[in-house]
Amino acid sequence: MRGLRLPRTRTGWRRTVQTVAALCTIGLLPAVWVQLAGGGRVRDLADVPAEPVAVVFGAGLTDGRPTPYLAHRLDAAAELYRAGKVRVLLVTGDNSRTSYDEPGAMRTYLVAHGVPSGQVVVDDAGFDTWDSCSRAKRVFGVRKAVLVSQGFHIRRAVALCEAAGLDVYGVGVDEPHDVTWFAGGAREVLAAGKAFVDAAVHPSPRFLGPPEPGISHALASPQP
């Protein structure tokens, strides 16, 4: 097996550098698209426009309870509800096995923090951001919404939900810039590539299923 041959001339080195630069530029294009497509519709809790629904994305469980990052998303969603900015909360996450019920834990948390149970709707098959966005529209009939996630994720969520046909704003929850935050930011650079493909191809969610009336019923019911 031959070893890697390095360029022996200035022209060879120049071409190598140009090739590497071009590949890096192409690799970063999805991340640039995410920032441009999603950045203009990110607001804070105080100035986000009122919409019928808030979509809260899962962020993992620890011993069956929301992780701190997920709890902060849920706290922000509950604040939106209490402020009258949204009327229904759609919690979307992974419930692919009986021992791991992310959206169920999210609903339990919200109810324990004062959100009426009838105003929380569960999406058990939000396995990734695209699936959550696609199912919000195709399964739950959401057209307009406020998305809730951490700042490093919210632009990708907005870009994907807009690509899925929703009219959305995003609220980015502030977090300390700790190891988890930096890891999440690094993951977003990699996830942008998949997001770019999802937005272009519009794949069906891993599990689509029939339409569910939970959102429409909650919106039609008298507000507590």
UniProtKB/TrEMBL annotation:
Tree of life domain: Bacteria
Residues making up the signal peptide according to the UniProt record: none
Pfam families linked to this entry: DUF218 (PF02698)
DUF218 domain span: 53-171
Classification via InterPro entries: Cell_Envelope_Assoc, DUF218
One cellular component term from this protein's GO annotations in UniProt: plasma membrane
PANTHER family in alphabetical order: INNER MEMBRANE PROTEIN, PROBABLE PERMEASE, INTEGRAL MEMBRANE PROTEIN
Name this polypeptide is given: Protein SanA, affects membrane permeability for vancomycin
